[in-house]
Amino acid sequence: MDFLKLPKRTSGNRTYGLTSIADFGTPIGRLTNILDDYSHIIDIAKIGIGSAYITPNIKKKVDLYKEYNIKPYCGGTLFEKCFYQKKIPEYLTYLKTLGIDWLEVSNGTLDIPLKDRLNVIEHAKEEFHVIAEVGSKDCNLEMDITKWKEEMQIFLEAGCEYVITEGRDSGTSGIYQSNGQVKSELIEELVKGMDVKKIIFEAPTSKHQMFFINQVGPNVNLGNVKLDDVLVLEAQRNGLRSETFYLEDADANYVNQTPTH
């Protein structure tokens, strides 16, 4: 029975309001049980860091995610490892062999020149849905707000489906301070100046997730979500937690607010 007034959520094969989980080695059996119940609130699955390369039965895992209509892709660290060893052509072939058609281009560990990342995007976008990550995993590196916005816009104009704001699985770099606090001034500028439906904010903890839900709206795109947290996150999006309790009218604050499938 539906008798509560809740925020309007996107559903089905949605293009925003995305929940992107980080899989750091969930066994196939356990993953199957989780997806049986919660696949409808998971949109994207990142096989974290470079773990896909050594994951047993990786093709079986990829196929399982696709069976539940979840888009799998490999973490940006594996891309950077391949770039470092000049193996990008082999990497793209590897992804196609696995049946993965999403590619993350990042420079969180390496300082890959922007032109080199754009060259990869130009080459890959005909065969892959490309996501570009902006920001460094080094918490001591500060990136000017203007540079954040410029780089993110350049990637979208180059044909990327989404841009990801670096936050690590610990929430201690990129859009976060080393103590885990959100760089709120940066987020305010990104939300104000860009198409927020094209940004996936890495938000590994409930505290981070609630910040973005309250700042952007229930249909904000969130990444690096732990598998065990997907139901709690959906409850937060629906105003069913104290910190997001008054969200029933929150769509009015959402940029380009009307939910679409």
TrEMBL record:
InterPro entries found in the cross-reference section: Aldolase_TIM, ComA_synth, ComA_synth_sf
Pfam families tied to this protein: ComA
Extent of the signal sequence: none
Family indicated by similarity: Belongs to the phosphosulfolactate synthase family.
Protein known as: Phosphosulfolactate synthase
Species of origin: Mesobacillus maritimus
Lineage, top ranks: Bacteria, Bacillati, Bacillota, Bacilli, Bacillales
